[in-house]
């Protein structure tokens, strides 16, 4: 018996999409698409500015993202990309030779993957947040790293496709580590699963007719931030071949999630559709009637 598809098999892709979006917004240079950027956090001005080592772009980060606020309030003090730091290291000498003369400013860089062999440059980053928030902090997603080996006159970026891909992989791995380390950031799928188990438990214990249970379920859905999608879970657990009976029986509970909530209604419609599909033989011919009942009961 397969679960209704909420994110289902797209989970991994979705995470990848999120990470790609994140990298595009916070890491890649808006001018030249290189990941060789520094982010500078100004706690005072509540801004994050980005500068590009490859093309010299400099500007404020345009995105208005929750993460911005988070970064401003919590300047990075660890290096999530460190775990992948050796990936591109081998290419460095080649790069230095090739581009020795192109760049000699030796400024701060977040090209830690190429220059940080694993923690040596972390020394300056471990200070606590409180002492950092005053000053302008050179920070980066994933992390800054002070270049200490400029004795050869500096280095520049390896902009080969392969090197960029490797660095993006580093960033992705690092960001994944950040994501799963935080319980608050459970994936939506995980949060929906939690809700699913709760509803299933209530159903199996025949508690779904109790108003206190309805309240409890709504509160839990709100806590999990999945109120809109909750009707999909309810549909999956409550609707059977006998959906017309089911909807009458569970009207009050459904209303808790769909009343004045168009998004919730849309997900309920999705749940109805999947129920019909599941029992196509008996329900397909009754679709119109089924929807009419939902409308008549003011659930939709
Ligand atoms: Zn650039």
Automatic annotation (TrEMBL):
UniProt xrefs under InterPro entries: ARM-type_fold, IF2/IF5, Transl_init_fac_IF2/IF5_dom, Transl_init_fac_IF2/IF5_Zn-bd, W2_domain
Annotated signal sequence range: none
GO molecular function, one term: GTP binding
Pfam family, one: eIF-5_eIF-2B
Entry keyword annotation includes Nucleotide-binding: yes
Domain named W2: residues: 185-300
GO biological processes: formation of cytoplasmic translation initiation complex
Record's GO cellular component terms: cytosol
Biased composition (Low complexity): 104-119
Assigned keywords, A-Z: GTP-binding, Initiation factor, Nucleotide-binding, Protein biosynthesis
Record's keyword annotation contains Protein biosynthesis: yes
Region of interest: Disordered: 74-131
SMART domains named among the record's database cross-references: eIF2B_5
Family the entry assigns: Belongs to the eIF-2-beta/eIF-5 family.
Protein name from the UniProt record: Eukaryotic translation initiation factor 5
């Amino acid at each position: 018996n397969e679960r209704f598809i909420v994110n289902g098999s797209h989970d991994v892709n979705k995470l990848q999409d999120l990470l790609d979006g994140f990298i595009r917004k916070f890491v890649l240079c808006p001018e030249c698409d290189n990941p060789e950027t520094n982010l500078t956090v100004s706690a005072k001005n509540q801004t994050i500015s980005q500068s590009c080592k490859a093309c010299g772009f400099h500007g404020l980060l345009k995105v208005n993202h929750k993460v911005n606020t988070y970064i401003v309030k919590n300047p990075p003090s660890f290096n999530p990309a460190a775990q992948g730091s050796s990936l591109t290291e081998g290419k460095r000498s080649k790069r230095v030779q090739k581009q020795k003369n192109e760049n000699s400013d030796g400024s701060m860089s977040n090209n830690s993957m190429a220059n940080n062999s694993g923690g040596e440059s972390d020394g300056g980053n471990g200070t606590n947040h409180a002492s950092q928030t005053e000053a302008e902090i050179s920070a980066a997603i994933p992390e800054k790293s002070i270049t200490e080996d400029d004795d050869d006159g500096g280095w520049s970026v390896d902009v080969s496709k392969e090197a960029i891909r490797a660095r993006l992989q580093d960033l992705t791995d690092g960001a994944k580590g950040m994501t799963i380390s935080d319980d608050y950031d459970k994936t939506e799928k995980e949060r929906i699963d939690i809700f699913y188990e709760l509803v299933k438990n209530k159903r199996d214990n025949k508690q779904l007719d109790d108003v206190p249970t309805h309240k409890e379920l709504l509160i839990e859905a709100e806590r999990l931030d999945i109120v809109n999608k909750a009707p999909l879970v309810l549909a999956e657990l409550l609707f059977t071949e006998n959906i017309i009976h089911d909807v009458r029986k569970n009207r009050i509970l459904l209303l808790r999630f769909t009343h004045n909530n168009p998004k919730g209604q849309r997900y309920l419609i999705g749940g109805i559709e999947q129920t019909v599909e599941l029992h196509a033989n008996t329900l397909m011919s009754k679709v119109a009637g089924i929807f009419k009942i939902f409308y008549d009961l003011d659930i939709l």
